[in-house]
Amino acid sequence: MSDEKKLSLQDLSEKKIAEILSGYPSFRAQQVYLAAMQYKEYSQMTNLPKDIIAFLAERYDDIAVRIQKVFEGKDGTEKYLFLLRDGNMIEGVFMPHGYGNTICISTQVGCRMGCAFCASTLNGLVRNLTAGEMLGQVLAVNARHGGTLKKRAITNIVLMGSGEPLDNYEEVTEFLRLVSAENGINISLRNISLSTCGLVDKIKELADSGLSVTLTVSLHAPTDEIRERIMPVDKKYRIAEVLDAARYYFAKTGRRVVIEYSLIDGVNSKVRDAKKLSGLLRGFSCHVNLINLNKVKERKLNGVDKRTVEAFMAALTEGGISNTLRRSMGNDIGGACGQLRRKYVGEEGTY
Ligand code: SAH
């Protein structure tokens, strides 16, 4: 691994740090681990002797991701531009709620899934994030909001930023272990949602892993004819297989699955689509989360008017399917679903 691509301390579990520092008294490893989880730089680790810092600095970076810029939305939403150590930039979103605060994090730089309505996939996949780069987004924003490991400023996480989490399975599952570690920031898996465009094999693998997060499946269409037009992944995994995997996930974890459905004008938003969707989901313990499509300037697709949303929701309810319309947050700062995109330092259009 070349120097600039070396891992950061935030990629390491407490156990791993103890192994690395096995030549030193064990309390030193604990100090390093806590400092890393508190998003401290080497220069701030004043309780550690210089030789340990030098030993670590040679092998690992202190900070996985840095906050490059924060855009503050009218509704309290904040969009973050995070700088990675290789010059790539990713985005994340902080959303305050009455019950706590949610952060939406990215799992890849770019994405290769090619969904027709999403900005994250416009330039394809650049690279996977490491587990520490995902954790770093959480730790950076927690620290910025004055949170500590005991009194967290972040209570919930959604893996819904740029990237397809299950296309980066190993690092994402390692992230889930790191972020829920007892002595770390310890965010419960129950408070974490993972959204996927429907990678069937990986949904099953996740179900078997024991990491029972809330699974969110981006369906966006009631038939394969419609779905394959807007989501290339549908050619590989058909709706029936995706829903089978979702049922398997529920059976294994007992966690109700969320179905994401973005309403797109002239594509999937008629009452007859809602009726078909009800038929598909009947008898499955799931909840439909509707989103009115957010505009992505490079794309021709548009959302729908209020009456169309209401008619769609009424048809689902009549079909016995529980549903809600997701409040779109951060629209004014390009931080809403599907608006997150890849950037690079110095690139035109960056800040
Ligand atoms: N790759 C994951 C995470 C994507 S983002 C997935 O496919 O689920 C989270 C959600 O936002 C997904 O349901 C995604 O389909 C949706 N989305 C993408 N672009 C959107 C847009 N322009 N408007 C509304 N929702 C969008």
Structure report:
With 351 residues, this protein is an alpha/beta fold. It is 31% helix and 20% strand. It contains 10 helices and 13 strands. The protein has helices spanning 14-20, 26-37, 50-59, 131-144, 169-179, 200-209, 224-230, 239-253, 271-281, 306-318; strands at residues 65-72, 78-84, 88-97, 100-104, 108-110, 125-128, 156-159, 192-196, 214-218, 257-263, 286-292, 323-325, 343-344. The strands form 2 sheets. Strands 1, 2, 3, 4, 7, 8, 9, 10, 11, 12 and 13 form an 11-stranded mixed β-sheet that branches. A two-stranded antiparallel ribbon has the order 5-6. The chain is elongated and about 70 Å long. The model has no long low-confidence stretch (mean pLDDT 93). S-adenosyl-L-homocysteine binds at residues 115, 117-118, 160, 164, 195-197, 218, 260, 262, 291, 293-294, 296, 337-338.
Describe this structure in a few short sentences.
The protein is of the alpha/beta class and 351 residues long. The protein has helices at 14-20, 26-37, 50-59, 131-144, 169-179, 200-209, 224-230, 239-253, 271-281, 306-318; strands at residues 65-72, 78-84, 88-97, 100-104, 108-110, 125-128, 156-159, 192-196, 214-218, 257-263, 286-292, 323-325, 343-344. It binds S-adenosyl-L-homocysteine.
